[in-house]
Amino acid sequence: MIILLAFLIFSSIASIVHFGIENPRINNSIYVKQSEISEINMYRENIKDIDDKYTNLVVDIFEKDYEIYKSIENMEMSEFEAINIMRNYAHVAYQLFIDFIKAGDSKYFVYVDYNIIHEFQYKLLQSWWSEQPIYERTWNIIYFEVLISENDNITEYLYKRTPWGELNLNNFLKNEFEFGTSDLINLINETRAQNIFWYSKTWEILYNYTQYGGVLNINVDLQLYDRIVQKYYEEPLLKLQNRRMNYDINLTLSSASVLFFTFLFDIFISKRPSHLKKK
Fold first, then answer.
1. pLDDT tens, 107-139?
2. In degrees rounded to 5, what are phi and psi of residue 159?
3. Which of 28, 54, 57, 192 is least crowded, fewest Cβ atoms below 10 Å from its Cβ?
């Protein structure tokens, strides 16, 4: 019996050591995960703001385009005035694109060392045998509208280089493998522009004055964004937290076991026959 108690005490102490070592590791992992999620949520707010501003910009452009068309038709506005008005919208589009590039660059984060939109897009590219639901096996987390000329080389044109970072829009253009085809870029050239804008020179003005390749609109599926955060970040964090809770419980039980078995051990030692006790 004494040998058994000694073994139980030793096992409980070993458990205390194990959980005592593992708990700090788990706490550190939880801290890193929480910090990563915090930065991912911060990026969400930034991208939502950019998305909203792009939406407002596009609405304003279409409204002003029609207004200019009617004014030019009625000879109430000169083409010089029209160019100045539309050039201002082109500048706003340029600034929003810079904000988008800067928001996604990992150098602005401490715990996120990747471009979040690219990372999230990759997480959606699951194989056909994956257990992931069919509706999530797409990569339509983000959508671009880009002004492009029929004379441009599409591959070169869609690779954007800026002093604040780079963005290869070719990665969002097509996916024609096992995941199906998904066009996430609406390319607006001279011919297509005739069916989109009223004023004949709207496309030309926006194209010429929108730097870094005429990105006119960026739309992010925030509901899909949130599902990705929940599945790939919040759920693993919850598992870590549950694991830490189980370790805390086991650590408490192990400590109590040491006290209890030590108490029993002392009782048995004290009740040993006197001729077996150490002199």
1. 667 888 888 887 887 776 555 555 655 555 556
2. -95, 105
3. 28
